[in-house]
Amino acid sequence: MDFDVIIIGGGPAGLSAALWCDELGLKTALLEAENEFGGQLLWTFNSVENYLGLSCKNGRELRDRFLAHMSGRGFLRFLQATAREADVKKKIVTLSDGKKYSGKAIVISTGVRRRKLGVDGEESFLGKGVLVSGKRDGQSVAGQTVAVVGGGDAAIENALILAKFAKKVLVVHRRDELSARPEFAEKLKYEDNIEVLYNTELTKIYGGQIVQGVELERDNFRRELDVEGVLIRIGVAPNSEFLKGQLELDVNGYIKIDSLGKTNVENVFAVGDISNPVSPTINSAVGMGATAAKTIYYSLSS
Ligand code: NDP
User: Fold this and answer.
1) How far is the CA of 235 from the centre of ligand 1 (A)?
2) What is the pLDDT along the chain (302 residues), one digit of tens a residue?
């Protein structure tokens, strides 16, 4: 199928790019690997308070507003459309089922995924003590002991939420200082039931039907600790593997772009978190999507 623009990824950046491509009369296909649009909004369980002009009780509510706003738009939308490879020079995207889409321009908005720790029990105890989110699962650990892994904003924000329910929250951090912003880190001082275990790594999650404990390592010394819940928040990784060797990526796999979202290949753009590790916000994603669409419009009509 031939389009002016193929957008890969239907989170805020991709949705915004689709809206603006449609607004500018470009024949557009929006491809999303999952079975619904929204990207990370679907796993944002906290309220969204810093998106200009709108507050929402969670990411899903904001996603619903985005989709409602776009319901009459004429661009084509494809769910469960996973891009297996993209020939960025020829502008051909091949899906995992073999279907091919070609365009004059490509917008990549495949975002990031949560990094995994890669320890025993992380997958097998998911939903059985391994939590998805503090906000979503806080009630399930009421009166219990929970380990939160990580030292960034996400770990500390979740530790603060869990401390409202849990008897004890242990933040397990591999370094000797937190990287979370001071606004979050400061609040830890006022929570009697949060303890930070510095220079410590979580090496195993164990239990029977449900989580019963974790193995921790510090200075090559391992010990076991009884916990009923574990939440892992150790950052994110860009979904750029399918583009390796095709586009210029930075050392962490983020796509390199200029201020208009242009990659090193003509008429190939990258927008949202996949190309913006500095400011991975909904606001930035939406703006980047619009900027890319306008730039494509000028490029194709010149
Ligand atoms: P970050 O990359 O900011 O932090 C990741 C943390 O996990 C660091 O403490 C890091 O330790 C640790 N870590 C990384 N890999 C491992 C590993 N293999 N084993 C153990 N620990 C590890 O990610 P976050 O998920 O905290 O945040 C992602 C983005 O989302 C950030 O931009 C953040 O600002 C944003 N965010 C914003 C919020 C808000 O505005 N309310 C809330 C939550 C997140 P080390 O320092 O040693 O590398």
Assistant:
1) 4
2) 789 999 999 999 999 999 999 999 999 999 999 999 999 999 999 999 999 999 999 999 999 999 999 999 999 999 999 999 999 999 999 999 999 999 999 999 999 999 999 999 999 999 999 999 999 999 999 999 999 999 999 999 999 999 999 999 999 999 999 999 999 999 998 999 999 999 999 999 999 999 999 999 999 999 999 999 999 999 999 999 999 899 999 999 999 999 999 999 999 999 999 999 999 999 999 999 999 999 999 999 98
Mutate to test the pocket of ligand 1, among 117, 170, 174 (most ligand atoms within 8 A of CB): 174
pTM for this prediction: 0.91
Ligand 1 center to residue 122 CA distance, Å? 18
Ligand 1, atom 2, residue with closest C-alpha:
235
| DSSP assignments along the chain, one per residue | -EEEEEEE--SHHHHHHHHHHHHTT--EEEE-SSSSS-GGGGG--S-EEEETTEEESSHHHHHHHHHHHTTT--SEEESS--EEEEETTTTEEEETTS-EEEEEEEEE---EEE-----BTTTTTBTTTB-S-HHHHGGGGTTSEEEEE-SSHHHHHHHHHHTTT-SEEEEE-SSSS--S-HHHHHHHTT-TTEEEETT-EEEEEEESSSEEEEEEEETTEEEEEE-SEEEE---EEES-GGGTTTS-B-TTSPBP--TT-B-SSTTEEE-GGGG-SS---HHHHHHHHHHHHHHHHHHHH-
What's the 221 CA to ligand 1 centre distance in angstroms?
25
User: Which atom of ligand 1 lies at the shortest distance from residue 50's CA?
Assistant: 40
Distance 149 CA to ligand 1 centre (A): 10
Ligand 1 pocket: which residues have CB below 6 Å?
Answer: 115, 117, 149-155, 157, 173-175, 179, 233-236, 280
Residue 37 Cα to ligand 1 midpoint, Å, equals: 25
